[in-house]
Amino acid sequence: ATLTAEATLKVDQPGPKIDKYVYGQFSEHLGAGIYEGVWVGEGSKIPNVRGIRTDVVNALKEIKVPLIRWPGGCFADEYHWRDGIGPRDQRPSRKNNWWGGSPESNHFGTHEFFDFAEQVGADAYVSINVGSGDPTEMREWIEYMTSPGEDTLAQERRKNGRDKPFKVPVIGIGNESWGCGGSMTPEYYSNEYRRFNEFFHKGADNPALRIAVGPPSGGDDDNWTEVVMKQIGSGRMDGLSLHYYTLPTGQWEKKGASINFSRQAWVDTFSRTLKLEDFIVKHGAIMDKYDPEKKVALYVDEWGTWYDVEPGTNPGHLYQLNTLRDGVLAAVNFNFFHKHADRVKMTAVAQTINVLQAMILTKDDKILLTPTYYAFKMYVPFQDSTSLPLELNPPTFTSGDKTLPAINASAAKGKDGKTYIGLANMNPDDEVKLTVNLGTLKATKVSGEVLTAPKMDARNEMGVPATVVPVSYKGGKISGNKLTLNLPAKSVVVVKLD
Ligand code: AHR
């Protein structure tokens, strides 16, 4: 069947900027995320530049990754930066207690991370150890990374091969401090934050945005946001983090499979991802109380799907496959982030390679680009664009006890001056015919790309040509100031209007 819908685009009422950081990535020392996924070592047969795989860097450059969050996650609160500098053969080997107890060689440390980010062309978001570290360790790491002077830490950095300071635009003060980052109460965390912040010395050498830990994942705890906003205060922080994972069942014990899932599992997954928007609105409203000028941004610095691990793999390595469902879900979330661009200034999908909702999966010298990767690619024109209001009346569809909007969408004026609309059709069965009233926009041509496939769990496989890839979109037409778009079932569409 074909569902119909109407929308109105208001190009004469431009909204806030959609920061490129909204397309950030999260890369933790977890499973094969860093080791294998990024770091293969200089002696590897896999083509690399200074130990960092070239195929992965090239793929990430294509989606214009603007920001990479590192080294965790839970890992960050057990990480001691001194383990990861100096001659690699002299670095200590540690146990990665959070993630399968796997050995951590520390071969990928501060210099290797910045080399990776710089090869990709991304900015760095460094997470500081608050849970098991102290303000001195933080201050010294920041000085090591950023000091331009002659002090001992800057000289040590130079001795280790880096003359100029690294650019560190974003620093997280703790991660999930209510859980793996220290099991703190919001009052205790707020005090800790204030203490660390006192030794942060934000200034010319260290201009980094300071990100405070936000509410527990799941988003239900309003009190955390209340206490942290009130006790830390908007003058001491630049961003508040929000983590939200989409589990098809909503249950951590049995989350649901990444492939071979039912139609109901598809619907359940989307119904859960829609809650992220509710949490952005809810926590945004609490922030408004303490920060009406919106000086503190909301950083959704962990989001994405979390399924049961691929059978036969280490449960601590969070390796899952990635299908069309993940690509459509990414677009749904992008549209939320655009809609709430007044508060949401940065996000980081979890995680870049081989972990959770990954862009890239690797196996030895092979790589696979996932449907999520292609959704990111299609949405590149939204980076640093200006959001435009798009009033949409979505048709709904029902499955079991759930009724969902079939589509969501967002619009923006790109840096190239063109108007872009991004759309996701969450309905697995029906196409949607959308008529958009273009208002005062004078456009005569619509072009774009569509990502879809016959099966809900269609995916790309290692070593064979990818099939779930964006193709040229032919479903749009403009007549007068009306744009019509035929959106195939279970698809992502991005169009450019000329
Ligand atoms: O992304 C995996 C883990 O999920 C992160 O380490 C942690 O911050 C979150 O609980």
From TrEMBL:
Its EC number is 3.2.1.55. Keywords: Carbohydrate metabolism, Glycosidase, Hydrolase, Signal. Gene3D superfamilies: Glycosidases (3.20.20.80), Golgi alpha-mannosidase II (2.60.40.1180). SUPFAM superfamilies: (Trans)glycosidases, Glycosyl hydrolase domain. It catalyses: Hydrolysis of terminal non-reducing alpha-L-arabinofuranoside residues in alpha-L-arabinosides. It is an enzyme of class 3 (hydrolase). Residues 301-491 form the Alpha-L-arabinofuranosidase C-terminal domain. GO terms for biological process: L-arabinose metabolic process; polysaccharide catabolic process. InterPro entries: Alpha-L-AF_C, ASD1_cat, GH, Glyco_hydro_b. The keyword Hydrolase applies. Pfam families: Alpha-L-AF_C, ASD1_dom. The keyword Oxidoreductase does not apply. One of its GO terms (molecular function) is alpha-L-arabinofuranosidase activity. PANTHER family: ALPHA-L-ARABINOFURANOSIDASE C-RELATED, INTRACELLULAR EXO-ALPHA-L-ARABINOFURANOSIDASE 2. Homohexamer; trimer of dimers. Belongs to the glycosyl hydrolase 51 family. This is non-reducing end alpha-L-arabinofuranosidase. It comes from Asticcacaulis benevestitus DSM 16100 = ATCC BAA-896. The lineage of its organism: Bacteria, Pseudomonadati, Pseudomonadota, Alphaproteobacteria, Caulobacterales.
